[in-house]
Protein 1
Amino acid sequence: MSEDVKTPEVEETQEKVFPMSTLVAAIKGGEADGLMEMLSFVTQSNVDADLAPVAGGIAKGYIYEQDSKLAAMAGEDISSLGGKVKMLPMEGEELTKAQAVLNKIIEIKAENEALKAQNAELAAAKAAIESEVAGLQAKVKVADDANAAGEKKITLAETKIDGMVKKLNELMDEVEKVKSQGVVVAGAAGGDAAAPAGEASSDAPSTGGAPEEDFGFGSNPFADSDW
């Protein structure tokens, strides 16, 4: 709901005197002391810089209605009419229409300010979201880098394990070969196998019999008649 323009206190005479230079500025354009005061008085509204362009157009049309010959006069000619001018405010239906236009401008201005504030809030929210997204992207990159490093370590570990398994398999193959072939003890090269332990050569004299009582060293091999 827009706030209606406030109507200034109406003087008892319903008239107000302004410098002629202010009247010239109101109808010919330009700046002059008391211009906002004149526009506010004519439209019975609180005219500010935002309302001044529209209020000036309304006041200009109203002044020409009061004295149509002013439209054909130059500013210098108007100023020559005197130092001051007496003004009456708008009234009746004409005043109502003028104030409705000014109130609509105030309403649009308020809506524009609200949109500006909303836009600022949206811009702040957008910046916050962008900052949050940037943070999440950074975290995702860290996670991706960590995963890549982990996968690299796993690959290296798998390679090392595969190498160890390969060596173990080779060792087991060697063990199986030894178990299947047995341990071979080779004799003298090109000769017969060694005689079993404890068996004397056929050429050696027999040493059988009980030991001699006198010597205790067993039988005498040299006492045999075949010697």
Protein 2
Amino acid sequence: MTVSNLKVSIITICHNNENDIRDTIESVKNQSYDNIEYIIVDGASSDKTLKIVNEYAEFIDKIISEPDDGIYDAINKGIINSKGDIFGLIHAGDQLFDKDVIQKIVNNFEENNIDASYGHSVIIKSNGTIIRVNKSPEYNKSLFKIGWMPSHQSIYLKRDLIEKFGLYRTDLGGSGDYEFVLRYFYFNKIRVKRLDEFILKFAIGGTSTSNYHKIFSAQRLQVKCWAINGEKPPFYMVPLKLSRKVVQFTMALWFNLTKKYETE
């Protein structure tokens, strides 16, 4: 398969995001790579979100608007309706980091013959100020034991893996993404390669960060995610996972002062 033939499905979930859905769509629309299938799953928004989405109807391959059973149910709908060779997520309010992100992801798949790609991310305020940086290390399965997980929306997967390992669980509250990534990356053998690039900008207060204040309570659920898959995490995992947040905030301060992220 050549680079030009690799179809990338990008899924955006949204619900009452009239203030920020346009920026998300534009970040996909402006990609330099053109073999993209774009799917938007709207949870029956009651504001102007769907009106804005429909303004881009010629660009969007499929628009689904109906009630759902939460974030992960909506993501599953998008995956089920996708037809690409690989797929990834960009939630409403968040943005792909620059116009060449998808091209770089495709290159990573083609050059390294992999099943999954991931990269770096930043969390930003509405004024663009970076408040947290998640710079991911080279892949090593054992990193999960010390509290590491790649940024969820930086991950792109071969779509045919879904048939082997399944969709997102919808019964784990806000930890459905953690269990999904843990199941794929740790409990199953897939070929993974980090892309040493920034993949996305998370919007503070958006779908991706709205439960940020619940970091501590989420740890109990994440321990459960290990148990679901038949293993108990090491006792030091949770403390180390929480300590990583301090490092990420420090990196954010550094990047805001130096603007180094713009050239990496």
Protein 3
Amino acid sequence: MCRLLTTLILLLTVGVHNALAAYTAQLSPRKNYPITLNMADDTVRLNRDLLLTITAEAPVNTTLQFPDLRAQNRWQGFSRVEDFTTQPIQTAEKTTSQYRWKLTPQPGAERYRLAPFAVQVLDATTGQVVDSFATQPVLLPPPPSREPVTGAYQIDPQPAYISPAPREIALWIAYVLGGVLLVALLIYALTHIKRKIREYRMTPAERALDELARLLAKQLPDHGLLKDFYIEITHIVRRYIERTYGIRAPNQTTDEFLAAVRSHPRFTSAVISSLADFLRHADLIKFAGAGANSAAVEAAIASVKTYIETDSHKENAPGNN
């Protein structure tokens, strides 16, 4: 009575499980040894473990023996495999065995498959092998493909402005000022070099007249700087004589300069007298503080310009070279 009740419960459980199974596959090629795989889901689901049952039936007085399906990578596409085996149930007509499995799918696997395995048919009394066969491979339904993502981004991040630190601002200001100073120094150096090259190519007279033009552009007499004006204009005359005749005029006093000029054969008495009047009048303004009006300034400018132009023409005249 108890054995009959157990058989009925097993048959009822198997029948209900098969009825609720969403996917079923037949593993055995032998009709007298049916082996059925039942899966609770219709496909493999990546978000949960897969539960399935393998039910094997054998004629009376025989049993089916499976190998260890956890070995040799029988389950392909699963990262974890656990089995739960129940005791075989024998009836007057057959022996039924159930093997329950819990499998964890691997995301991105090429396939989810149960490879073929060998099944041995054993005599229930002696335990000897009376037959054997191989099961068919089972390719489980793969997970459904994801629907393509459409529409715009739900989140549209915008760049956030981060104000620079005070130290960083100070560094950038220092860099800018340094760059401006460097450019200014470079421009000044290039201008100075360009002017020196131009002066080097000038004759003594052209250079003296250029210095005179730069002096007049300063407008020193208009600002009350008569002493500075006469110092610079006398230096122009002295430098011209030094470049033209080799007399170290800028480093000599007025008397020493006039003495050197008198001993030079290229200076006439009229030129010497004119230079002496011009230099002594300038000394009165530079050292004695004597006054001078605009007419005197204009006369000094005209005298220097006339002397340089006249002397340069005399030097360039035939017979003086």
Protein 4
Amino acid sequence: MRKLFLIFILTIFLFGCQKDPFITDFPYMKNTDHIFEKVDYYKAYNFFENGTGAILLVYNSTQYSCPYCKVCIPIINNIGKDNNVETIFYLDIFEMRTNNTDEYHKLLTLIDNQVDDLIIRDDKTILAVPDLYFIVEGEIVKHHIATIYDEVNEKYLTVLNVDEEQLLKNIYQEGFTLLNQKR
């Protein structure tokens, strides 16, 4: 009986100590009921080819402090939950993009073949973050990069006023609405 009790306590301890990859990657979301699930490159690539749902390309905030991610992730989470989304996948592309890997180029090519508004820097098309994709059976039906683009200053905003935040919420809502309509 003691052995069973000890095994029970150890099991609870081990499972209780498992860390949530999302909270590890984005500690500022620690006390949030989130719907994000981290995926690896292969699952993400397959999702872009065949999946239905939402996937977010991001940088892990412990590797690179992305001010746009910090603004967008809580809004995406809330709008997703408002739309009864169970899971939004996310892929950390920091290492792939930094190291200019073959996987990064394959993913970039796959996405670039479906959308025509990716960011161009130094005459090269890149995957920017955060970028939320809405996909139905492998077809990108909508995506949105970063926050709100300030045409005057030619940059994305890192601080949003109430109207700008509502505009961003509306953009995400439109994407989730498209997903619900096409399912």
